[in-house]
Amino acid sequence: MTSEPVPESPATSEGGERKGQRTRRRILDAARGVFANLGYERATIRGIAAAAGVDKSSVIQYFGTKQNLFREAVHWTIPVADAIGDTPEQTAENLARGMLAAWAADPNSPMAVLLRASMTSEDAAEILRNHITSSATPTLATAIDAPDARLRAALLGAMLMGVASQRYLLQMPDVADVDIDKLVRLITPALQALISPAE
Amino acid sequence: MTSEPVPESPATSEGGERKGQRTRRRILDAARGVFANLGYERATIRGIAAAAGVDKSSVIQYFGTKQNLFREAVHWTIPVADAIGDTPEQTAENLARGMLAAWAADPNSPMAVLLRASMTSEDAAEILRNHITSSATPTLATAIDAPDARLRAALLGAMLMGVASQRYLLQMPDVADVDIDKLVRLITPALQALISPAE
Q1: pTM for this one?
Q2: Distance from B186 to chain A by nearest Cα, in Å?
């Protein structure tokens, strides 16, 4: 798959620009739903256009290729820097609550769609790896005062992703049946032990 | 998809039975590879037969339907009871080491194939949920002396699955780059905090 440049919004006037932004958002929302349900490989531009109620040519005009559309649909910023608190316990709690709340707010959040697609698509997995490795892990590592800070940060992310994906993607009983406050209460000491070891 | 009965092994003599067992194993190994690469939905009996070097009719003779073949290919027993140690720390360490070692030994282990397939197939997710919920979680819960023992057991499983899938399925840097001993050393106190809370 070649990577074509994404064309500028085709709108020319200010009103047209707003309409263009709305269409763009509509396509991105539809794309997340289709990628979530079918995975990266099975999703098609045609199917996404149909889900968004626009022509296939519009999708190509706005996003070029399926790969580009996917990259934009799953783009998200992990607010790790905002989660760093005054104590390791506070940081652990903020991260747990932030991740679970983000998934709860939108089952087709960019993070959820990307994780699901990563299980069957190497392209998607590469985007996820880059994002975690270059942004979330190093930011969190700066807040960890222990040997292997970077590895501890990465493991915290892995553990949280395990809990979130069992709750929201796999809808595992037990993990899916309790409220977020209770989950956060049980998880926080575990994450704290990871980023602030006793010895 | 209707669930047809799996026919008995077509072998009649003792030597034929051994040959039948070998063919069966060969088909199951090939099936795990194909399900791992393509996911449940895109895998076909024809493709699995080709990967195993047998006729499509043999696969149908031994396993009936794709659904039955999948169920047998991903069947695994979590040795949770064996992992329960004298202390919560020992139990946590045994579970971490056992899970990581199982994935390391076989990237297409039944557990890994089932988890990957579960992300895009509701049939696969249902098998995984049943297995965890009816076997692994209650067994581990019996070893936890704290309120919410069952939920704590389920969360330990979710966290370990997060670490194993980031290491082996997603090959996330940091988590994939260290040896199992180091991972176990960092993870154990976190799991211990979950199953043996301080307060």
Answers
A1: 0.83
A2: 7
